[in-house]
Amino acid sequence: MKEKKLLIFSSSEAKGREEERKILTAFDGKGITGSPQKRSKNEKTFDSNTLPGNSSVDYTGCKQSPVRQVVEVDLPTKFGHFRLILYESAADTKDCQLVIVKGDLNRKDPLLVRIHSECLTGDMFGSLRCDCGDQLFYALKRIEQEGSGALLYLRQEGRGIGLRNKLLAYKLQEKGKDTVEANEALGFKADLREYWVAAQILKDLSIDRIRLMTNNPKKIEGITKYGIEVVERVPVIVHPTAMNENYLKTKKKKLGHLFPF
Ligand SMILES: [Zn+2]
Q1: pLDDT tier at 65 (50, 70, 90 boundaries)?
Q2: Which residues are close to ligand 1, an ion, with C-beta < 5 A?
Q3: Buried-most residue among 19, 32, 138, 260 (CB within 10 A)?
Q4: Strand 67-77 relative to strand 97-102, pairing
Q5: Helix (H) or strand (E) run with residue 80 in it
């Protein structure tokens, strides 16, 4: 582990290390909320030795989880009544991760799960440039219907390139490039998303077999490689519009997404 630790710290800024130290200090004892979360496996084991985040690093030998619940609250929504859990990870001290859950997470049957990457424009503003908002709301409704499930809301905007770059990519799309070409023109791969943190959160919730709501086979690969078994792909039903038809076609053709149209 020592070599891995050095490898990770070599790519982190000293400032990040200091931020992490503050979090670890805050977590010490009763935690930030003053009341340790019941469901988390990691009430006292948030350990800076298990820093994460880079898919090229193998963490399978690590004994302690690098994610930790900070707080769990009630979340009534127009789609149903859920609980909202905030997680922090030692890898990323700037962004928290959110999990919306309902029902018994540790029942015998594989749990219905959506791993959703943040899309401010689609999720918050109802943008029709993409299908993210539709997928998010479909997943919440489906979890409500089934009575149990989890939606992980990962802070990796714009397939991992961030909001600023996503909007720059939008500008290039307005000049004729498709979503993949635009990301590449900015110097990024078509999809930079990473599912290591998602897998750690699922493990922390004692969820290791899931029915994954996704149209993206690469997401199944992305989570499976970290030890989560996907026993079924549950399609996410989205309806193409004149505004996002080309975007969806590009996702199907170039990114391998599975759509029935
Ligand atoms: Zn989107």
Answers
A1: low
A2: 119, 122, 130, 132
A3: 138
A4: unpaired
A5: strand 80-89
Please tell me the CATH superfamily of domain 64-156+193-261, with its number. GTP cyclohydrolase II (3.40.50.10990)
Residue 127 alpha carbon to ligand 1 centre in Å: 7
Catalytic residue, chosen from 193, 209, 211, 233, is 193
129: DSSP letter: S
- Scanning the chain, the segments in alpha helix (DSSP H) are 2-10, 14-27, 132-146, 162-174, 179-185, 196-204, 217-224, 245-255
The domain locations on the chain are 1-33+163-190, 64-156+193-261
Distance 181 CA to ligand 1 centre (A): 16
Q: Is 114 a catalytic residue?
A: no
Q: List the single range of 1-15, 130-144, 184-198, 233-247 with lowest mean pLDDT.
A: 1-15
What is the Å distance from ligand 1's center to 117 Cα? 8
User: In the annotation, is 129 catalytic?
Assistant: no
pLDDT on residue 66: 84
Catalytic residue among 123, 131, 178, 191: 191
pLDDT (tens digit, 9 = 90+) per residue, 168-220? Answer: 999 999 999 988 899 899 888 888 888 999 999 999 999 999 999 999 998 99
Distance from Cα 37 to the centre of ligand 1, integer Å? 32
Q: For residue 168, report the distance from its CA to the centre of ligand 1, in Å.
A: 14
Q: For residue 93, what pLDDT is reported? A: 60
How far apart, in whole angstroms, are the C-alpha atoms of residue 228 and residue 208? 5
Range in 34-38, 77-81, 152-156, 223-227 the model is least confident about: 34-38
- Do 150 and 223 touch, CB atoms closer than 8 A? no
Token digits for 14?
Answer: 């000293």
